[in-house]
Amino acid sequence: MSYIKLRNKNNKKIALVDCNSFYVSCERLFNPRINDLPVVVLSNNDGCVISRSSEAKKIGIRMGEPYFKVKQLVREYNVKVYSSNYALYGDISRRVMHVLKKFSPKIEIYSIDEAFLDLTLVKNEELESFISELRSLILKWTGIPVSIGVAKTKTLSKVANHLAKKEKVGTKSFILNHEEEVNNFLKKFPIEDVWGVGRKISKLYKNNNIITAYDLKNANNTWIKKNTNVLGLKTVMELRDISCIDFESSSSPRKNCCVSRSFGKKVLDYETLKESIVAHCLNAAEKIRIDNQVVKSVVVFIRNSPFNKNEKFFSRSKKVDLPIPTDDSILLTKICVQSLQEIFLQGPRYQKAGVIFSGLSRKGKYDEGLFLHERKEKSQNLMKAIDKTNFRFGRSMITVADTGFCNSWKMKRSHSSKIDTSSYDFLPTINIR
DNA sequence: TCTGGGGTCCTAGGACCC
DNA sequence: TCTGGGGTCCTAGGACCC
After folding, report:
1. Residue A221, CA distances (Å) to A61, A182, A212, A231, A242 in order
2. How many of the other CB atoms lie within 10 Å of CB of A153?
3. Residues with CB under 7 A from strand B
């Protein structure tokens, strides 16, 4: 009881800053002619719609929808379509986050287009002008429009952000503060839009007459705990103004690293599959070396399409635990190829393959013993040389022979805007003192 | 014909031990 | 011949996020 009372004195101000239609906004930066047109950005392989301009939303294109299903609408309304360009989006994202850091020392970068900001120190009467200035400076310095929601907990700031996008067309910002006002909005807020409530759980809630965020706020704790898990209960608490989901200011090192791709066209043969696995493995190894990490166990997986009704779903994986954690591309590639040999079966029309590195840890955490020292040093020098050359001359300048040269498995990217990171010079530059 | 990719956290249940 | 119970650790799979 005292715990809840203590937590009830929550006077925090948590802002969620979210870039509007982020990938579309990035494409528009380089092509202002599409500013008022319906625009969508597609996932890898031109598979699904993953970002939509407001004009595209209006004509009924839904998030996550397979591209082939919306082609008719695209033709009918002359929608501009782009393949995704993550190098570009990553770069713009860093610019946006850089600006945010100037406004609050306490920031949690939540995803490529979202960040939580602790604005508790901003005075109540200054909050509105503060976030208004924040919005306009982000737009001025990066060209990206954002929405901002402020509330006492992360979950409520997510709600506020939704409302900013939906209800506040002009200012795109919303402060949820007084309890009565919060309740009124929660009564209109669909349960499936609450952060942390996904497809499965919202179905369960609806079956039990929990239809809005307000219903969930007033749900019985014991019932929630019994029917969901602690995360479900945390969400309920957060709706009640009780902060339960911690603010993670410093980015903690990642625990897993997965590289996988769907193929541009179905793959039947072992050799092509092997080329893709080797490429994914090299890619993942490079990623963990950048973060100064080593991997303890390696999973290789292959599968055919789960959507094809004419073929039985086939999915296989093989996990290998390494005696000593490593970041050595050559060793990791050998392990991946051996694993693939073990799980490969002739027959399925393979649609996707990938590798997962798990049990990542900081390099140098384990002492491998003296007898390995010399070999390790050789391997490290080689890896450094590979990374340096690839960084200078482009990815895959140096690679292992198994990656192959035909690359027939590579992704489909029919709508690329072909903007590369070297062409950023005309962008507004950040100049903050 | 064509349905993404990369993460995190939680839990149930099995293996193992005393 | 009788064959317990409680604890820990690990892992696969599920649910969620953007």
Report:
1. 38, 20, 16, 12, 14
2. 24
3. A 43-45, 47-48, 50, 64, 66, 68, 229-231, 254-262, 266, 287, 305, 307-308, 351-352, 354, 411
Residue A184, amino acid: N
- What is the crossing angle of helices A230-239 and A154-167, to 10°? 60
Contact A140, A114 (CB under 8 A): no
Gap from A190 CA to C8 C1', Å:
42
Over the stretch A313-343, which tens digit does the pLDDT of each residue have?
Answer: 899 999 999 988 999 999 999 999 999 999 9
> Does strand C come within 7 Å of the CB of A113?
yes
**Spatial distance from the CA of A298 to the C1' of B14 (Å):** 22
Domains of chain A: 256-403 (3.30.1490.100)
pTM: 0.90
Task: Give per-residue pLDDT as tens, A403-429.
Answer: 665 567 777 888 988 776 544 444 443
